[in-house]
Amino acid sequence: MQYGDLSLSNEIVGIFQGQRESKVKPMKLRPIYDDVPSPDVPIHILQYKISMATTFQQHQQLQLELNKELEMRRRIQWTMRNIANLAAAESNENSLVFHTMPTLLDLPCYSQAIQAFDAMCYELDDHEYAYRQLFVFGNLCDNGVPVDTIVESTRKTCSNIV
């Protein structure tokens, strides 16, 4: 995704850096080996807690929480795939919507699709993982799928979610 004045992306970086050499030497950073993508933090925390559990009951409870989180992720992925398949089938679009990042050419369509998903399927505030799946709506909108088709596909898919 890109933000701001996109016309600057065609400029040469050196134009903005000036002519003089810097007197400050760049600081060497030590390598990071334990970085975790933001949506995976809850999973890693639970896995760590499971490894540190001292009783069988703690271990079982944490394992249930982990399984619940993983199941929710599978449900969100299934939901997004089903919405996209329904919407794309009605508009004869291909399945590239799952594998590319959108350029967000139709922002009103994207916003309405996200609002429908948030209202009908999963509240985004409660499911951070769902944020990582929203690019599918951007691709559907960029491919010319009407927002009404996307919203209707969302309604059909999410009417069964409890």
From TrEMBL:
Organism listed in the record: Ciona savignyi
Domain Legumain prodomain: 65-158
Recorded superkingdom: Eukaryota
Classification via PANTHER family: HEMOGLOBINASE FAMILY MEMBER, LEGUMAIN
Protein name listed in UniProt: Legumain prodomain domain-containing protein
Family: Belongs to the peptidase C13 family.
GO BP annotations, alphabetical order: proteolysis involved in protein catabolic process; vacuolar protein processing
GO MF term list: cysteine-type endopeptidase activity
Gene Ontology cellular-component annotations: vacuole
